[in-house]
Amino acid sequence: MLLTSVDTFSVFIYLYIVWFFHAVLLTNSKERLRQLLVDQFCEATGGPCVYTGRTTKLSHNGIGTGLTNSEFNAFYNDVAKALDENKVPLAEKTEVLTFVNSFRKDIVEK
For labeling, which of 43, 45, 52, 56 is most exposed (least CB within 10 Å)? Predict the structure, then answer.
C-alpha cells in the first residue's frame, strides 16, 4: 500500500508546489526521489527498508526563497489524499502523517 500511495502523490503536477520539483522533472531523478520517499516512509513505519538519502534539513536547505507553511501543507495534504485513495488503515495513515509533519521544522523556512 505504501508504494502505491507514493505513486499516487501529485506533487509533480500540483501547481502550488511543483516549482520545488522543477529540477527533478528535468532530469531522471524523479525515480530516485520516488524511491527515497518509499524508503523513508517504509523505514519510518517500521518496515524493512533503509533510507539512504540526505537528512531532510540538508535536502531542503535553501530551496528557492524557502517553503512556507502553506506550501508544506500542500504536500502534507497530498500525502493524506494518496493514503485515503489507497485505503491505508487509519493507524498507518496517522503514523505516516505524523512522520511527515515531523519534518515541518526542518523544511519551512518562512
Answer: 52
Which CATH number goes with the domain that contains 26?
1.10.490.10
29 to each of 14, 18, 25, 34, 98, how far by Cα in Å?
18, 15, 7, 8, 26
Residue 54 domain boundaries: 2-107
Please count the structural domains in the chain.
1
Task: Give the predicted TM-score (pTM) of the model.
Answer: 0.70
Tens of pLDDT, residue by residue, the chain (110 residues): 555 655 655 554 454 455 555 555 555 566 777 788 888 888 888 889 898 887 777 666 655 566 788 888 888 888 888 888 888 899 988 988 999 999 888 888 77
